[in-house]
Amino acid sequence: MSGTGLHLGRLSPAAAIRPPSDSSWAQGALLDANFQEGRYRFNGVSYATETDFLIAAGGTPYGKTVAFKPYSSPDSPELITNGDFQQLELAGWNQIVNGTSTATALPGAARLFSDGTTGVGGGGAGITQPIMTTEGAAYSVTYTVSGGTTNFRIGGTTGETAPGAAGGTRGPGIHTDTFSARGPISHFYAFRASAGTTMVSDVSVKPCLPLEGLSGSGMTIEIAAKTPPSPTAREVLWSCGHLMTADPGDETLVAYQLDGSLVVEVRAASHVQAALNLGTVAPETRFFIRAGFAANAFFAQLDDGKAVHDDLGVLPGLAVMRLGHSFHGQVWNGEIERLTLYRESGVEAFYSLIPNLIRCEGDSFMTHGHGGGPAGSIISRLESITDRTVMTTASGNSTMPEISERLSSTEFRHLRPKTTVIWDGSENPVDTLSQVAPYCESLATGLRQIGHQRFVIIPACANLLETDMTISDAIRDELKARWPHNVLDWRDRLDLDPNGAPAREMFRDPDLDATHLSGTAMEIMAAAIANFITAKGW
C-alpha cells in the first residue's frame, strides 16, 4: 500500500499550519500522524511508513480516508456465556420459537430452523442472552454465520428479543459489530425469521475502544487540515461512532457545513448532545482545530481563537474512529495534514493544550460575576477583545495567601505555563505598612511555582472616595520594585477623583457598593491587559 492519499505536500513556511504542541511530536499524544511530512507515532513507537503505522494503530485505508477498527484488550472479560456452544442444550441462552420453528444445540453452534411463522421477536426461531454492561461504554460483538442468513438485534436494554436495538441481516461469514450500552443490561439476539435454517457460532461480546491505549472516558484530538473547495453537501473531517448499519445514532464528528461553518457535534441515539459552532471558514483555507470529548463535557477551538464548550450532554460509548468520512458516508474533499490524539479528556486535558490561553487569578475582581455579571466581567471582555481563551481560577473575598496557593496548586497545574493576570482588587487583610512586604512575598511564593515571567500584576484598587492612599500606594511601589516589567496600574487607565481613587462612574453601584467596579471600568482594564500582553508578545 502506497498510502491513503491524505498528504498535503510540502507547505511553504508562510502557509504552514501551526503544528500541535511542538515541532517534532505532540507531547504525551497517544497517536500523532503527520501525513504531510511522513512522520507517524503510536503508543510511544515511531513508524517509518504510513503502512506500518496503520497496521500498529488498527487503521484501514479506504481511498483517501481511514477507519480505525474497534480494539478489545486481550485481558477484557468475556460477557457471553457459552458463546462457543460447547455446552449442551443451549446452556446460558434463552430460546424464542414460533410455530414449529426450533432452536437447538449442535457441537460448536446453535441451529435455528424457521418455518416462517411470524410472532414473538420477529417470528421464526432465535436465541437471546442478557449481557451485563456499563451504561455509556462501547462493546464489540463478533460471531459467525453459516448455512443461511441470520437476523440480529444487539444492545437492547428491555425484553429478551431486544426491541428497538441495533441490528440487521448477516449472510454466511465472520462478522463484527459494535454498540453503546444504554444501561446495565444489554441483549444479544440472533434469529431466523424467514423459512429456512442457519447456524450461529463463536459469539463473543467484549468492551472495546477506538484505539489501544484509550481509557474509555473520552479523548482530545487536534487536526491540521484545509477546507474543501465549494462544498455541495455536508463534509466530515473526523468522526467516531460504531459499525452497526442499523445503529447510526451514536457519533461524534467534526463537519464543514454548506454555509461554511465548522462544527463539532455529539449525538447519542440520534439526539444531539452538543453542537459547538466554531464560525465560518472560507473554502480552500488551512485551519487547525482542537476538540475534546469527556463523559459530560465537550470543548472545541478553531486556530488560536477562544474555545467554546458545552457541559449539558452525555458522551456515548465509541468504538470506531474515522478520518475523512463519517458512518453515513459523508466524506472530506479537502486536505488533511496531521491528526493528533490524546488519551486524556476533560477540562484539564483540553485547556492544557491551548498555548495562548490567558489565566486570571485574584479575588472577586477576576471572577465571572464582577462587572455586572458574566457578560460584563473582565473575563468575558478580555476574551472578546483578544479572541483568545480566558479562564479564571479566582474566588471572591480571597486573601493574597489564598491567591498564591491557587497559583501553585496541583489542581491547576495545567494552567501554570499559561500567561497569567493577577488582580487582588482589595488588599485585605493589609491594614498597616508593615504588612505590605509579607503581602507581596506571599504573591512571590505563588509566582515562583508557575515557572515563567509571562504574568501581569494589577495592584489593589482603592475604594470609592478613599482619601488615604498610603497602603494602596505602598503595595503598588513594592510590586513595581519586585517586578518592574510586570505591573499594570489601574491609576493609569481608570478615571480618577481628586484624591486618586477611581471616580464615582467607575463603580458598579456607587450608592450601595464602594468596592466593586462597573462594567465600563472592567472594559477599560480588559483593553489595558490586552494591550499589555500584546506589547510583550505573549
From TrEMBL:
InterPro entries, A to Z: SGNH_hydro_sf
UniProt name for this protein: SGNH hydrolase-type esterase domain-containing protein
Lineage of the species this protein comes from: Bacteria, Pseudomonadati, Pseudomonadota, Alphaproteobacteria, Hyphomicrobiales
